[in-house]
Amino acid sequence: MSELPRAAVERLIRNAGASRVSASACDELIEVLEEVALDLGAQAIQLAKHAGRKTVTADDIKLAART
What are the pLDDT digits (tens) for 34-50? Predict the structure, then answer.
């Protein structure tokens, strides 16, 4: 089961300009977004550890997103 609600992802796609969104499109985007989020989170954790911290900060996330 995914962590992201389908309704929220559908709203994101609609905000991007789609007039209709299939359930399978929402499900696929959920999978992609969760994979990207997990990768970013792991990178941010490594950045925090490298800085000698246990707490992941917004700056860690921003830096991880740039790489």
Answer: 999 999 999 999 999 99
